[in-house]
Design brief:
With 182 residues, the protein is mainly alpha-helical. Helix content is 46%, strand content 8%. It has a 3-stranded antiparallel β-sheet with strand order 1-3-2, with no helix packed on it. A hairpin with a 3-residue loop joins strand 2 and strand 3. Helix 1 runs antiparallel to helix 2, helix 3 packs parallel to helix 6 and helix 4 packs across helix 5.
């Protein structure tokens, strides 16, 4: 991931070197060089998309993605590490250390402070791994006895949700209620 203008310049140079190597190669070697060049090009395009404001929200598929998302959010806000440090009331070296170490040693409250300083919020869901939730329209009651890894709707067919607000899922020991509008 490209984190600053200096790394962008290095990546552009690397892209040219990879393209030149591909031009001078044949067969499988050429394909390898082209694949590597494509990866670098994707990183350059992602960085430019973030810096120009075309990309402003970032998907977290797992908590492992959080460090890179925080760095991308800083870039999207066009903030330097020094400016972020000022907003956090910490030294620039602290932000550099956090980012270069992918926030490995940062506590959760620190990560939340960084998100707040960047003007971002976490939006999403936290669910048990492997659980599938089906949404029906507009209200369904799904018995959950005996316990199951999946919510089963029996004869009720799941439907796709096209709504501006996400469905609400609540439950007790007897049933899971899924509310939403179709």
């Amino acid at each position: 991931m490209i984190r600053n203008e200096r790394q962008l310049a290095v990546s552009r140079k690397k892209l040219e070197e990879l393209r030149e190597a591909a031009e001078q190669s044949t067969g499988q070697d050429r394909q390898v060089w082209l694949r590597l060049a494509q990866e670098v090009l994707c990183e350059i395009e992602e960085f430019q998309s973030i810096r120009t404001g075309l990309t402003t929200s970032f998907e977290l598929k797992s908590l492992d993605d959080l460090p890179s998302v925080l760095i991308k959010a800083r870039l999207a806000r066009n903030l330097t590490q020094s400016e972020l440090a000022e907003r956090l009331s910490v030294s620039e070296q602290m932000v550099q250390k956090d980012e270069s170490g992918s926030y490995e040693t940062a506590r959760l409250d620190r990560l939340a402070d960084v998100a707040d300083a960047l003007g971002y919020e976490f939006v999403g869901r936290f669910q048990r791994a492997g659980v599938q939730v089906f949404v029906t329209s507009p209200v369904s009651v799904v018995p959950t006895s005996p316990p199951s890894r999946n919510v089963r709707l029996g004869a009720v067919q799941p439907v796709a949700m096209n709504s501006s607000s996400p469905p609400t899922v609540t439950g007790d020991s007897e049933a899971i209620f899924i509310r939403g509008s179709q």
